[in-house]
Amino acid sequence: MHIVVCVKQVPDTKIIKINPKTNTLDRRSAPAILNPYDAHAVQEAVRLKKLVGGTVSVVSMGPPQATAIIKKSVEIGADEGYLISDRAFAGADTLATSYALSKALERIAKIKPIDMVICGKHAIDGDTGQVGPGIARRLDIPPVTNVIEVTEVIEKDKKVVIKRKLTSGYEIIQAQLPCLLTVEKEINEVEYSPLPNMIRAAKYESIIWTVADLENVDKVQLGLKGSPTIVGKMFSPPKPEGGIRLEGTANEQVNKLMDLLMEKKELFTLQTTK
Amino acid sequence: MSEKFDVIVVGAGPAGSACALTCAQSGLKVLLIERGEYPGSKNVMGGVLYRKQMEELIPEFWKEAPLERPVIEQRFWMMDKESVVSFGYKGLEWAEENNYNNFTVLRAQFDQWFASKAVQAGALLINETVVLECIVENGKVVGVRTDRPDGDIYADVVVLADGVNSLLGKQLGFHKEFRPDEVALTVMEVINLPKEKINDRFNLSDNQGCTIEIFGDSTKGNLGTAFLYTNKDSLNIGVGTTLSSMIKAKLKPYDLLDYLKNHPMVKPLIEGGESAEYLAHLIPEGGYRSVPKVAGNGVVLIGDAAQLVNAIHREGSNMAMSSGKMAAETIIEAKHRNDFSESSLNLYREKLYDSFIMKDLEKYKDAAHTFEKYPQYFNEYVPMMNKAMSKFFTVDGTPKRDKQKEIMKSITKERGVINVAKDMYRAWKAVK
Ligand SMILES: Cc1cc2nc3c(=O)[nH]c(=O)nc-3n(C[C@H](O)[C@H](O)[C@H](O)COP(=O)(O)OP(=O)(O)OC[C@H]3O[C@@H](n4cnc5c(N)ncnc54)[C@H](O)[C@@H]3O)c2cc1C
Hints:
The complex is a heterodimer of chains A (about 270) and B (about 425). Chain A is of the alpha/beta class and about 270 residues long. Helix content of chain A is about 30%, strand content about 25%. In chain B, strands 1, 2, 7, 8, 9, 10, 16 and 17 form an eight-stranded mixed beta sheet that branches. A seven-stranded mixed beta sheet of chain B has the order 5-4-12-13-14-11-15. In chain B, strands 3-6 form a two-stranded antiparallel ribbon. In chain B, strand 16 (about 295) and strand 17 form a beta hairpin. The interface of A and B includes residues 192, 193, 195 and 198 of A.
C-alpha cells in the first residue's frame, strides 16, 4: 500500500504573537514546527505500513526551510518526502493550496500509485480544515474527515473500516480505496522515534519540485492569484479575567455566592426569540 | 550490529560543534548527538564570544554568524552599596572588522548556527536524544547508549562534550562529584530593551557593544562576579558565586539577581526592560587542579566536561572550541594510525597542556582558592576603595597629600598594616 501524507510547517501557535499594528501573525516570534495533527497523520501511516506493508511518502508545500518537517516525518518513519517549493505557490489560501497539492499528488502517483492520502484535521495556524477535503474533491476520491481510528484495512477488496468522531459520539463507516482521511489527535500517540530513524532523517535529502516539475498546471489557480480568500481582521482573544475568591465561613460564602449569581441572573434565563 | 561511525560527539555546544566540524572537514564519519530540541536551546552563557579561537575554526565567521554586537568597551566595576569605582577601556579600533576582539552573542541562536556549519561539513546531527551512558567493552569505550528505542550506536571514538555536569565523564570514573568550591552557580536574565535606549544608556552606536563586569556588592561581597552585556536589542545580566559561598552565606541565586537588578548603580541601565528569558547554569571554576583525566581508551573529554574554564577572565567558550579542535586533530591522526587506545589519544592531552588553555589555568591555579579563603578582597577592599575614591575626589580644602595619607591610614587601620601587606602579596601571588 502506498500512503501519502500531506504535511505543513506551521509556527508554534502556543508561543506566537500577533503584531498589534498590522494584525498579522509575527512568524519570527515562534519556531516553525510540524503541524501537530500532521504528526499524528504520519504516525498513522507508519502504523498502517507496519500492519499491511508498503510505502509512506509525505508531501508539503512551502519555502525551502520546510524540508525540516520532511526530515521530522522521516524521523517518525516516512520513507520518502517531497517538497513543492516555488514563488508561484506563495500567498496561497486553502483553495490554491489544495490545487497545488493535488497536482503534486498526481505527480507522485505516477511514480507509484497512491492508495490512501492522510491529512491532519487542520493546520494550527489557520484552523480551517479545508485543504484535505479540497484535495479529495480534486482527485475525485472520497474525503473522510475527523477520523479517530482506522479499524481495518481490507486490501483484497480495496476497502477500509474507519471510526469518525461526531459532535455527539462516533460513527463507523467503510470507504473504498483510494480515499483521503483527515485525522484527529486521538487517533494515536506519536511515538518516540527509534535511533535508526533519527540517523536516516539526519541524512535524508528531500525531493524538491518547482511548478515546472508538475504536470498540467493551470497557473492562474496557484498562489495569490488563485486565492479568493481575504482576511478581514485578526486579533488575539481577550485574556480571561481571573476568578473571584470567596472568603469566610461556609454560610457566608454561600450567601456571597448567591448575591453574585442574583446580580447576573440574566445569564441564566433562557433567551427566547420573538 | 547497527551502523558504525568514526566519531560520536555527545553535546552540540561550542566544544562539540567545533570537534564535529573539524572531524567532518577531514572526511571522518561523524554523529553529533544533542539532547535539546535544537543545539543551544538550553545553553547558557553571559555572552562574550572570542574572535581568535572561533576564527581558527571558521574564517570570517562574523560575516555570517548570528552575533549581537562587537565589543568596543570593557568596563570593570568595584561596586559598593551606593557607589562604584569604575575603570575600563573603550577603543574604536575594536569596531573595525580587522580588529574585532570579541562579540556578544545569544547562545540559543549561535549554537544552532555553529552546529549547522558542522552539518554542512558532513556531520550528522540528531537532536532531542539523550545519551544515557557509554558502551564499554573490554575496558574500551565503543559507542553510546541513547534513550531512544534501538538506541545503541557505535564508533571508534566517543567525544564527551556534554558540559559542566558531564554525567558521562563521571560514569566512566574520569571525575568525581564536584566539591561546592569547584563550581559556580550562575543565574542570568535576558532583558529586552529597544536598541535606541541601549545605545543612549551605554553610549554606543548600533554596531558597538559594551561589557561590564561587576565585583563587590554585586555578590553581596561573596566570591563571584556579576555581568551586564549589551546585545542588539536586549541586555544579558547575571550573577554567580561559588556554590560553597552560596551555601555559607545562605544566598539564594534568584534573590541575588533581584538584588543586583535593583541596585541603584544598575537599575537605571535596565529600567523599563522586559524580562524575556531566565536561565541558571553551573560554571566549572576549579581550574587547573580540577581538570580530570581527558583521554581514555576510545574516549576523550572536551570543553566544560573537562572543566576547561578560566573563571578570572570569564573564558569558557573559547577553551571549549580550542579543546574540541585539538581533540579532533588527535582523532584524525589516530584514525591514520588506526589506534584509538588511551596512549594514542593521549596526544590530545599533550596538545592541551601545551596550549594557552592549560597554561592560563596553571597561572591562576591558586586564585579561586585564595579569594575563597580570604573573602576580604570582595567584602572589605571593594568598600574601602569606594570610600578612598570618594574621599580623594571630594573637594573640601584638604591638601591632596594629606588626603592620600588619610586614605592609607584608614585602610591600614581597618585591616592592619601587616594584614594589608599580606593580602597584597597573596593576591599578587595568586594571579602573577
Ligand atoms: C552564566 C554564564 C556566563 C558565562 N559567560 C561566558 C562568557 O561570557 N564567555 C565565555 O567564553 N564563556 C562563558 N561561560 C562559560 C561557557 O558558557 C562554557 O564554558 C561553554 O558553554 C562550554 O561549552 P561546552 O560545549 O563545553 O558545554 P555546553 O555549552 O554546556 O554544551 C553542552 C551540550 O551538551 C548537551 N548535553 C549534555 N548532556 C548530554 C547528553 N547526555 N546527551 C546529549 N546531549 C547532552 C547539552 O544540551 C549542551 O548542548 C559562561 C557560563 C555561564 C553559565
